[in-house]
C-alpha cells in the first residue's frame, strides 16, 4: 500500500525481506539437505552468517523494530544479498547512511562520456571528476584554455592549473571569485569523500603552495556551483565571456560534464576565430 509519506523503517524491512526471498540458495552452494524450504530464498540465519551479524539482528531489521544499521553493516548486507549498484544505493538511502565508494572514484573517462565530449564540438567541453581532475576534453576546450595533453596527468587538474600554472593563473579576469567557488566545491567533495587520499593530497599541496587558497580554504565556504559565468583573458583573441553548465550523468555520477557557451556576440566571434586557427 502506498502512503502519503515513506516510513523508511517499514520500507527497509520490506526491501531486505524481498531481496532475501529472491535469492536462489543453490547460488550459494548450500548443502542439498538444506534445500527443503518452506519459504523462498535464503533463511534469515544464512543471511546473518553471510553478513557477519546475528540472526536476531536480521529478524529485528525485517520486523521494522527501529534499528538503524551502520554504514559497515549496510555494506555487509548489500554484499550478502548480492544487491545491484542501484539496489545498494537504495539500501544506503533507506538506512540514512552514506556509502564508502573510494574504490569506485572516477580516474578515467567513461567511454560514452568521452565520445560525448567530442560530439559536443564546437562547444568547448571537458569531463572532470569530483576533485577537478580533467579526464577528457575536445579540441575547442584545448584551444580556449590549454592543451591538457601536453601536461603530465598529475597536473591535469583545474584547481591546480588555476593556482599554480603560470599561464592559467592570469587567465581569469575575476580570478578570486573563480578560485573561491572552486574551493567551495572542493570542500563539499572532500566532506563526502574523506577517504579520498588523492583529494586530500591535492588540498594539502594547494594550501602549502598558494597563500590565497590557504586563506579561502580557512573560510570554510561550501557550494556546489554547477552553472555560472566566467570572463577569460585569452592571449590570442582577447576577452571571452562564457556561460558554463555542469551536468552529472546518472550512470556515472562521479563524472562531471562541463560545457561552455559564448555569453555574447563578441565572445562568439572570438571563439570562432580561435577555433579556426
TrEMBL record:
InterPro entries: Cro/C1-type_HTH, Lambda_DNA-bd_dom_sf, MLTR_LBD. It comes from the Bacteria. PROSITE patterns: HTH_CROC1. Residues 34-88 form the HTH cro/C1-type domain. SMART domains: HTH_XRE (SM00530). This is Transcriptional regulator.
